[in-house]
Amino acid sequence: MKHNSDRAEAHPISDLQSRVDEWIKSVGVRYFDPMTNMALLTEEVGEVARVMARTYGEQSKKKKDMQDLGEELGDVLFVVLCMANQTGTDLQAAFDKKFEKRTKRDADRHKQNRKLR
C-alpha cells in the first residue's frame, strides 16, 4: 500500500462519494433511509467479521463462507459513502481532519509501545 504525500491535492474520497451519488441517482433510484443504511452497514461489517474469523481466526471455513474480504470491505465502504452523502458529510474533509489529529497525537506513541516491537 502506497502513501504518497504528493497526492495532497487529490480528493479520492470525494470522488468516490460523487461516483456513489451518481450511481444511486441513475441505478439505485434513491438512497435508503438512514436507519436502513445503518442496518445494512451493521450487516456488511458482520460479513467482514465472518471472513476474518474464518480466514485469520480459528473458525473453520464452510463452503458457503468462501467470501472475498476485499468484496466485503467494498460493501462496507459503499454503505459508508451512501450514509455520508445522505447526511451531507464530506468524508474527505473528515478523514483529512482525523488523519492530521492522529498524526499529531500519535507522533511518538506507537514507536514507544513495547508491544509493537
Main attributes?
single chain; 117 residues; mainly alpha; Helix Hairpins; 4 helices; 62% helix
Brief synopsis:
62% of the residues lie in helices and 0% in strands. By secondary structure, it is mainly α.
Task: Give an overview in words.
The structure is a single chain. With 117 residues, the protein is mainly α. It has a domain at 12-91: Helix Hairpins (Orthogonal Bundle), CATH 1.10.287.1080. It contains 4 helices and no strands. It has helices at residues 12-28, 34-55, 69-87, 91-105. The radius of gyration is 18 Å and the shape is flat. Residues 1-6 have low confidence and may be disordered.
How does the major sheet shape up?
none
SSE ordering: HHHH
Average pLDDT taken over every residue: 89
- Helix share, percent: 55-70%
**What characteristic shape results from the CA principal axes?**
flat
- CATH architecture name of the domain at 12-91: Orthogonal Bundle
Structural class: mainly alpha
- Quick one: how many beta strands? 0
Strand content: under 5%
**What count of helical segments does DSSP give?**
4
* Top-tier CATH class of the domain at 12-91: Mainly Alpha
Looking at CATH, the homologous superfamily of the domain at 12-91 is: MazG-like
CATH topology of the domain at 12-91: Helix Hairpins
Topology of helices and strands:
Blueprint: H1 12-28, H2 34-55, H3 69-87, H4 91-105
